[in-house]
Amino acid sequence: MALKQHTDHKVRFDQQVDNSLSYVMPFIEQTKPITKGMNVLEVGTGEGGVLKPFADKGAFCVGVDLNEDRIVLANEFLEEYVTAGKIEFLFENIYDAPFVKRFTGFFDVIMLKDVIEHVPEQEKFIAHLITFLKPGGQIFFGFPPWYMPFGGHQQVCRTKWASKIPYYHILPTFIYKPLLKMAGEHPFVIRELLEIKDTQITIERFERIVKKCGLKILKKEHYLINPIYKYKFGLKPRVQFAPITWIPFFRNFLTTCVYYTVG
Ligand SMILES: C[S@@+](CC[C@H](N)C(=O)[O-])C[C@H]1O[C@@H](n2cnc3c(N)ncnc32)[C@H](O)[C@@H]1O
């Protein structure tokens, strides 16, 4: 059973804004205070709500996404900001030459919230992101580790059991795919879920990639209860118990979201 924010774009936009203001921006500001005149990029911006609090602080913001419909919505929801030249939304690929030419060495902060788990060849992608940073710039990542109860994003399924059962995304594809088909999921949804299975990212792999790209972890927070669950399920966000964060691999199963700033 899909949640309201999967079908109601304005609900999703409002949740993005509030979550950004209450959790993402305070986290980033622990290592990089946001000030007037900074340049901020969000890759995978969706409806653009994450950027709004940054524009309100006087940063010039760019939101880029591969989904044209969501960029259209972002332009609608933040029309005033776009008209005033405070935010630009682009339906572009960050590998495209015009994007690279315009934005190399341009950004103080780059954000990827709930995006890196959708991206193939993450090592190449993160290395490419670095080229858009100014010296001293930082990148924020927030993502659900693959082995967490709903790390397969199966909550987007339309059928009740398929969206409510935890951990079955970990099953081998030859079992997982028929299960999704049996649940009557749309082929588009099945394709998307299998793509996430292909790109699966764990805490350990993420940290390895970041280090390999020559970046340092400046700040991290692991959550037992993802801040976004406040809006989705009315749950109180909760950071992970420290001893669990110390147990490699096992911690992935009980950690619904991680935040990192690297630079
Ligand atoms: C789960 S949504 C997150 C939206 C928003 N950041 C938020 O936190 O609500 C993931 C978004 O990333 C976009 N995306 C996935 N891969 C991308 C890529 N390589 N470049 C740009 N956008 C991408 C998708 O189109 C989608 O809009």
Characterization of this structure:
The protein folds into 2 domains: 4-146 and 200-262, Vaccinia Virus protein VP39 (Rossmann fold); 154-198, no CATH class. The protein is built from 14 helices and 8 strands. It has helices at residues 4-7, 9-29, 52-56, 68-77, 79-83, 97-103, 122-130, 160-164, 173-182, 187-198, 203-212, 229-233, 242-245, 250-254, and strands at 39-43, 60-64, 87-90, 107-113, 133-143, 217-225, 238-239, 257-262. The protein has an 8-stranded mixed β-sheet with strand order 3-2-1-4-5-8-6-7, sandwiched between helices. Strand 1, helix 3 (52-56) and strand 2 form a beta-alpha-beta unit. It starts with a helix and ends with a strand.
- Tally of individual helices: 14
> What is the overall pLDDT average?
96
Bound molecules: S-adenosylmethionine
Please write the string of helix (H) and strand (E) elements.
Answer: HHEHEHHEHEHEHHHHEHEHHE
- Largest sheet descriptor: 8 strands, mixed
Task: Summarize this structure briefly.
The protein is an alpha/beta fold and 263 residues long. The chain has 14 helices and eight strands.
